[in-house]
Design a protein that fits this description.
7-stranded mixed beta sheet; CobQ_synth; cobalamin biosynthesis; glutamine amidotransferase; Rossmann fold; globular; 6-stranded parallel beta sheet
């Protein structure tokens, strides 16, 4: 089917979080865009602390920003109208159409379901009217039947919009055939009706050995497997969440050093880490080896330590103290060894944090003013206040142009340290010897700035043999990964069936007898 004749929508669901929904959606979007289809991504509801700021100052999940780029579009709040940003195990900040409107728990969210359904339905209808195709991404798994009554992003969305659903399973985790079968089997009949096929993700080895299992899965469910996507080590940018940020895990696969020395980076894996993707730009550089760390012993040999953003700054600051990382950071600072703090990590480096926004009393309830001592490595006092600052920014750092975005409640109320950046003509961030801090996310994606700063870091770290490569482009790496995703989709998926599902909706398929009955979802 030609691009100009293709019209419709489709939902990509997953057996679990991190099954590959986001990358499959991005790959399908890029594949369709290359065919001349006017395509847009959509995730009705996301739960992630990895977000970006759109041109109009709204927040969306980082995965939807990547999917927008796959379509050749600027990120927009339309692509992710509901975003939940967890600040604790029980409370999340609720962002609707890009704007933070409060903090909710599970029961609060239940009472808002009708209001949020209307928002989701309106945005999806608007996108379908404007674009040829909308590729929707589910959230978590549709098999979470305990959450079905409030579901906005999986079968609730698919049933409301009569969308065919493809379920992605990650074979790298094991048990994928059972996961796919079970996902269908636990659903009520009206939801089962929409499940139209499966996609296997991250396969290693000989597909012919898997084929008998796929044939049996089709016989058991009446639904085909549209394809088996191979494991691709080169796909790692713009992770949807922080599931992959395990302690000790490497970030990316850096090329060998351009000079004679490697530069090693330890990024602290905070319990409530946010915008963990900030460090990925460093991992694009030849000779820069980045790993996640959650203990002081992992910082000892690193040339650079990064404290990333946090959705619960004071709680994560207390965690740094409890496990010995705070003391290790003080020792690094005293020895003149490089440290970078980004957003929440920057705030932790200061002397005091006054928090009347994030800090909730034990047992829950509304935030109350609370003063916490920071690490004292920068002469800086921070106060959290509303409204949240969310904006894209341009400026200058290390005599080079920079671009990024800010998402934070913190305001600098006092500092004596020199500014690190200039944003819109105003000072921003701090620098003191080998310690740098900034509220700006995405700063390290500015290629000329990153090269200049890494050169200074290497000097302070005693790595004279480290030389930055002259032409590393983070944007080019991202584009190459999107094209690789599209190539995998084109080579390994049944595109004829995919087109038919987009255009004509779900295929007739049998109901698996599970004893689950349909219920009123009004």
């Amino acid at each position: 089917m030609s691009g100009s004749a293709l019209r419709g929508a489709l939902l990509i669901a997953g057996t679990t979080s991190d099954a590959g929904k986001s990358v499959v959606v991005a790959g399908i979007c890029r594949m369709l865009a290359r065919r001349g289809v006017r395509v847009a991504p959509f995730k009705a509801q996301n739960m992630s602390n990895n977000s970006v700021v759109t041109l109009d100052g709204g927040e969306i999940g980082r995965a939807q920003a990547l999917q927008a780029r796959a379509c050749g579009l600027e990120p927009s709040v339309r692509f992710n109208p509901v975003l939940l940003k967890p600040g604790s195990d029980r409370r999340s900040q609720l962002v609707v159409r890009g704007q933070a409107i409060g903090t909710v728990g599970a029961r609060d969210y239940f009472t808002r379901r009708q209001e949020l359904r209307a928002v989701v339905a309106a945005e999806l209808a608007s996108l379908r009217a404007e674009f040829d195709v909308v590729i929707c991404e589910g959230a978590g798994s549709p098999a979470e039947i305990n959450l079905r009554a409030t579901d906005l992003a999986n079968m609730g969305l698919a049933r409301a919009a009569e969308l065919a659903v493809l379920v992605v399973g990650d074979i790298d985790r094991g048990g994928v055939l059972a996961h796919l079968f079970g996902t269908v089997a636990v659903l009520e009949p009206e939801d089962q009706r929409l499940i139209s096929g499966f996609i296997i993700n991250k396969f290693r080895g000989d597909v012919s050995l898997l084929q008998p299992g796929l044939d049996q899965l089709t016989a058991l469910t009446g639904r085909p497997t549209l394809g088996v996507l191979p494991f691709a080590e080169d796909l790692w940018l713009d992770a949807e969440d922080s599931l992959g940020t395990l302690s000790g895990a490497p970030v990316g696969r850096p090329d060998p050093p351009h000079g004679t020395d490697w530069l090693t980076v330890a990024a602290i894996r905070l319990p409530r880490i946010s915008n963990s993707t900030d460090i990925e730009a460093l991992a694009c550089e030849p000779g820069v080896a980045v790993r996640w760390a959650d203990g002081p012993h992992q910082l000892a040999t690193a040339d650079l330590v990064i404290i990333p953003g946090s959705k619960a700054t004071i709680s994560d600051l207390n965690w740094l103290r409890a496990n010995g990382i705070a003391e290790a950071l003080r020792a690094r600072a005293a020895a003149g060894r490089p440290i970078l703090g980004i957003c929440g990590g920057y705030q932790m480096l200061g002397r005091h944090i006054i928090d009347g926004v994030e800090h909730a009393p034990v047992g829950g309830g509304s935030p109350v003013p609370y003063v916490a001592d920071g690490l004292g490595l920068l002469d800086l006092d921070i106060e959290f206040a509303n409204p949240k600052i969310a904006r894209q920014v341009d400026g200058v750092a290390e005599a080079n142009p920079v671009r990024g975005y800010e998402i934070h409640h913190g305001r600098v109320r006092r500092t004596t340290d020199p500014a690190w950046l200039t944003i819109d003509g105003e000072p921003e961030g701090s620098v003191r010897e080998a310690i740098w801090g900034t509220h700006v996310h995405g700063l390290l994606e500015s290629d000329d700035f990153r090269r200049a700063w890494l050169t200074e870091v290497a000097t302070r770290a005693g790595r004279p043999g480290f030389t930055v490569a002259p032409n590393t482009s983070v944007a080019a790496v991202r584009e190459a990964q999107l094209d690789l995703l599209a190539d995998l989709i084109e080579q390994h998926l049944d595109l004829t069936t995919l087109d038919n599902l987009i255009t004509h909706g779900p295929h007739p398929a049998p109901t698996l007898r599970t004893g689950i009955v349909d219920t009123d979802r009004a």
